[in-house]
Amino acid sequence: MTIEELKKHSKIKYEGPKSKNELAFKFYNPEEVINGKTMKEHLKFAMSYWHTLCAEGTDPFGQPTSDKKFGGKTALEIYKNKAEFGFLFMDLLDLEYFCFHDVDMAPEGKNLKESFENFDIMVSYIKELQKKYNKKLLWGTANNFTNKMFMTGAATSPNADVFAIAAAKIKKAIDATYELGGTGYVFWGGREGYETLLNTKMDVELNNLATMLKISRDYGRKIGFKGDFYIEPKPKEPTKHQYDFDSATTIGFLRKNDLLKDFRLNIEANHATLAGHTFQHEIATARIEGVFGSIDANEGDLLLGWDTDQFPFNVYDATLCMYEVLKAGGFTDGGLNFDAKTRRPSNTVEDLLLAYIHGMDTYALGLRKAVELIEDERLDNFKENRYQSFNTEFGQKILNNKITLEELTEHALKNQEPDVKSGKQEYLEMIVNQILFRG
């Protein structure tokens, strides 16, 4: 891939659902106003720096299928070319945001000091590109999982020196996030877990993980970072027992360690299904607990048992995702980051553009249909009717925890044959289909 190849393409425009121009949006019309906000404001799409500019199509069994040096020769030249390509790419797609790991943006040096020096050079370079192209940082993070020193964790490493290096990398990434105007900082615990309790002090690791989150939060606030800190739940791969398994587990950990005030969840679709949940379930859990923050938009192949990070195609999932996002009041500091990569044989510049067009259209269609589902009101009305017994004086006492076990027993003896109505799941699924596929 080269910058010259990308420059051959024009800006991607909205042409509507009947268009057969593959390099045009069919459903994403960025300036169209829906419920008082433009689609662009609703969706807040972001480019993933790592998959888009770094992933070369390798897998455990195969070599790279695309060249992401973008014509560069030296290490810094390669990374400057990555940045140039990335910002031009965002400009063509009218993507307003991007997200990064530290090692995505700058080459690692012979030691931590040299890596930091390279990172400083690239942060300054990217800051200039932000001004040139008018682009914003959604969130940043540190890659504390690839280097072999993190093979048994970063914040949860059994080695205190590794813990310190992880902390230093987090500090540097928070500094960069703040300097580049990011509104979020993500902790992705890729190796924060364990393989076996035969060699693990779980209590020590959980304590140290909480310590890392607290001191990182404190440092961020000290330097003036006012955005959200995010935890990204992930159930497995590479670690068998992840401490951030799913939304509920992560919320419990945050609550126990008094971190809910500053932390929200960054929820990934593929991680949800790996945890045995639906994507909608994970977002709804975060919404109900008041910690919904941001989304990594992708999907997995349900026939495979790992994190395939495919561009989103499933309109059902996108619709029910956006249904929950709208119910949560929409995004504030977060957005929809395409933590997705093209399939290994899709290795051209055009494939990369098509993948983003496809993903953006999928979520635009999901937004449109989610709004229609809410405006239709049948789903909400059905749920209200199903739970109407809790609107009675008796039901309100249960909801407000103003009833005793004795009172419940007395009520039960008087009402031994309750009328439990049908859940009508098939009817509700029919409504979803009707909304999705009506003209």
From TrEMBL:
Locations listed in the record: Cytoplasm
EC number: 5.3.1.5
Chain sites annotated for binding Mg(2+) 2: 268, 271, 307, 309
Annotated catalysed reactions: alpha-D-xylose = alpha-D-xylulofuranose
MF annotations from Gene Ontology: magnesium ion binding; xylose isomerase activity
SUPFAM superfamilies xrefs: Xylose isomerase-like
Family: Belongs to the xylose isomerase family.
Record protein name field: Xylose isomerase
